[in-house]
Amino acid sequence: MQENNSRKFVIYGPITGHINFDTEVVGTVVFFAGDDIYLRPIASYEHLSLEGNRRYPAVETNPDDIGVWTTLKANLNTLGLPHTSVLKLETYAVGTVPDPTPDFPGGDDAPVPQVLDDGVKRPIQIGDVLRVRGQYAVDYSHSPYGIDHSESFSYMRGLYKTGFVHAELHPYRVNEMEPVRHGFEGMPVNPEQPRFKVEEHAYFAPIYTEVYDWTWGTNKLGGVAGHMVEEAKHGTRTYEFTIAAPPKPICYGTCQLKFETLNLGQYDIGTPAEHSVTLNANGLAVRVVLTAQNHLDPGFLRMQYKLWWHDSFRPSLYVNAGDAYDCAHFSSQAQAQSVLRANPSDPNRLDPDGNKIACESNPAPHDLWVDGKYSATWIEQNARPGNNATFVSQSFPAWVSSGGSFSASVTLRNTGTVPWSRLTAHRLGSQSPQDNTNWGLQRVDLPVGVVIYPGQTATFSFTARAPSVNTSTSMAWQWRMVQEMIQWFGDFTPYRSIAIEQPSPTCSGTTPYYCACTDTCTTSLNACKRACMEEME
After folding, report:
1. Could you count the other beta carbons within 10 Å of the beta carbon of residue 356?
2. Is-cis flag, bond preceding 191, omega within 30?
3. What angle do CA 201, 247, 131 make, to 5 degrees?
4. Whether the Cβ atoms of residue 164 and residue 209 lie closer than 8 Å to each other
5. Whose CA is closest to 304, among 266, 355, 354?
6. Where are the domains of the chain?
7. Cα(279)–Cα(403) distance, rounded to whole angstroms?
8. How far is residue 167 from each of residues 55, 128, 203, 480, measured CA to CA in Å?
């Protein structure tokens, strides 16, 4: 246990003891400055965020926040991340004030933190997805943006404002944090990628949602405050979230998602912790309920979860069987390729032309991943050099209301030789005419972290908005791939038109009825019927 000081209260603040615990978080870097790095946790780690982490400063009333929050918000928008919560990493030790040392940057003029990327140190970047381990702390002394309690973070308790508590993490090795490469949302898929992911989560109770300092005591003595500690305490805390399945690899037989859990530590006083998990189509649904009424004896649980894909096909059964098998024994090219990968000497002569692709005429699924990249042979036969795309499918409504929003999707296959991602500025762009904003947007981005390799398909799902029109009309719907500042490329999506219906007029007063035949307001339904009959004659 480490000591706290007058400004840094660990876990339960000055009303409890000096408690902290070790845990990890995975999230996207959305801002960094001085001693602080701000992460947007991925969904399964968002439970580490507390009330203060989910509230943002109103910059119009708090000018001190403009430099942090305005930039942070802009980065969230650029990365396509929701504004639900942000967790701060403080790059100095728990229970200390910022102190510039070789291990901890410290100070406003601190050097940019480093990450260990494939064994090589480089400066941290906005958009990096990091797995960080450190000491988790709950801070009652200020907002997560570094200022004292402000209108946007607090509400009134008696004569003084009371703020919301926020959580933060103090990394152990701030210049050796490693970017996430495999197993998490948005990571690329290839046959050599690990088929598993491991997450570790810590849960605790109780929690006090408000900031406690001398203002409460003043209010209490003045007779204008209730028992703030008990009123704000959450003795029972319920955690519910889903750990997303690792990206599905190429399976040569039947792919089945499996899991195991490991209890790494538990501390219960009174009511035992409730812990349950359920495997579903999205991953592993976790539910934890902790109850603890005494802050000096908190409830605590740390669990490890492992998810992996089990492949029913076993290449090892064929590797040491001499030349007993040929291409006809495998139901797909991918099965044969897995055997060739397991034994490159190829006693079964699955690769007679020596191009490292086994049983090329076998049916799909295909495994064309060779020597850390897609097969050069496959690229020569199926892809044009550089950027290229082939249309697969699209979805959109046949008609929409004037000014109305609707969901749409476009699916394209990467038939070029280079991968697509946000970092390479590959996007879906509007056509007919090029770069139009008729449907409310002219570009659609890939999700953050997603990489579309040659041979893979990309589905762009987005919300479009019809233009506002005074008369019914139709408008072109067409899209194409673009690499910004480089080129437009590949198939155009098939040219289609979407009908846009004009809004019905608002009828009132002496003409309260809308008549569709004449597109006018009438005095009565009978008048509308007569008008319609006249139109028919």
Report:
1. 17
2. no
3. 35
4. yes
5. 266
6. 13-191+201-236, 316-382, 389-501, 506-537
7. 41
8. 12, 21, 13, 44
Amino acid of residue 408:
A
Determine the CATH number of domain 389-501. Answer: 2.60.40.10
Q: How far is CA 243 from CA 190, 261, 283, 304, in A?
A: 21, 12, 6, 11
Per-residue exposure over 11-21, b if at least 16 CB sit within 10 Å of its own CB, e if not? bbbeebeebbb
* DSSP per-residue string spanning 303-324: EEEEEEEEES--THHHHTSTT-
Match 């003043």 to its residue by tokens.
218
Please, what's the b/e burial string for 378-408 (b: 16 or more CB within 10 A of its CB; e: otherwise)? bbeeebeeebbbebeebebeeebbbeeebeb
CA distance 203 to 224: 34
Tell whether the model's pLDDT for residue 191 goes beyond 50.
Answer: no
CA dihedral 443, 447, 451, 456 (to 10 degrees): -80
Closest CA to 454 of 377, 531, 389, 362: 389
Tell me the backbone φ, ψ of residue 231, rounded to 5 degrees: -65, -30
Q: What is the largest CA-CA distance in the chain?
A: 93
Q: What is the pLDDT of residues 159-174, one digit of tens each?
A: 455 567 788 888 887 7
Find out whether the peptide bond into 447 is cis, omega within 30 degrees of 0. no
Output the pLDDT for position 439: 94
Check residue 76 and report its DSSP letter.
Answer: H
For 128-141, how does the pLDDT look when each residue is reduced to its tens digit (9 = 90+)?
Answer: 889 998 888 877 66
What pLDDT does residue 80 have?
79
CA dihedral (323, 327, 329, 332) positive or negative:
positive
- Write out the two tokens for 44: 């399964």
